[in-house]
Design brief:
mainly alpha; Arc Repressor Mutant, subunit A; 2 domains; 12 helices; 0% strand; elongated
Length: 236
């Protein structure tokens, strides 16, 4: 797997010549070593944050030398960038959208919410990578990850439009999906942040009810004087 390398100054104790893989190293062995580095780094980042993790700790966790780490990654940030690309929870989105089932837009969106909820409850640790990305990097790696799903957004919006049942409002595709995924992301991030410390009044809330608010709005019924509402003043 090819990695993106960024320029850094070589540490003073780093021997020369270690920024290139050793001659004759097999691709399979190299891939295993790189994966071991990423797995070790992922666990360390999740447990103690980006700034709290050193290259030495990553090397120790992967069972390799510091020089071996620099064979594959030019900096600690390059490691995090690859970890975030490979393990961030947004990678579940394409699979979830493609496997969603339902005869109406409402059924499809509810099914997506249920599938994402199940996946993220199983891998809630990966949501901590999003906290690190937002708090320690100001989200600079996030846009690259999200834009990879641009085509998927258009395809799913078309699928929603072709489904039977209620007609969708005329709105930009990205507005619909951004609002929906934003709702789900905020829900999961809050649960991850507070874990079991939520007060009973908040812990009792259900995500499916939040999806219902997204689908039907917060108002019990449309006001009679709303534009286009039936029975507006002056109408028979």
């Amino acid at each position: 797997m090819e990695t993106t390398r960024t320029h850094i100054n070589r540490p003073e104790d780093q021997p020369p010549g270690l920024l290139e893989p050793a001659a004759g190293e097999s691709a399979t062995k190299g891939a295993r070593t790189q994966r071991a580095i990423l797995e070790a780094a992922k666990g360390l980042f999740i447990a103690q944050g980006y700034h709290g993790t050193s290259i030495r700790e990553v090397a120790t966790g992967a069972g390799v030398t510091i020089g071996a780490v620099y064979n594959y990654f030019d900096s600690k940030e390059a490691i995090f960038e690859q970890v975030f690309a490979d393990y961030n929870p947004f990678r579940f989105v394409p699979e979830t959208f493609q496997s969603a089932r339902g005869e109406t837009p409402e059924e499809l969106l509810r099914d997506i919410a249920r599938r994402l909820e199940g996946m993220l409850h199983q891998r809630s640790d990966l949501l901590r990578l999003v906290f690190i990305e937002l708090l320690e990097f100001n989200g600079r790696h996030l846009l690259t990850v999200l834009t990879r799903n641009a085509a998927l957004v258009d395809e799913f919006r078309e699928r929603l439009g072709q489904a039977g049942g209620a007609r969708l409002r005329d709105m930009p595709p990205f507005l619909l999906l951004r609002t929906f995924l934003g709702l789900l992301s905020a829900w999961f991030l809050a649960e991850t942040l507070f874990q079991d410390k939520l007060p009973p009044s908040l812990a009792a809330l259900r995500m499916e009810d939040a999806v219902d608010v997204f689908l039907h709005g917060a108002l019990a019924e449309a006001p009679t004087n709303a534009p286009g509402a039936h029975g507006a003043a002056g109408e028979e």
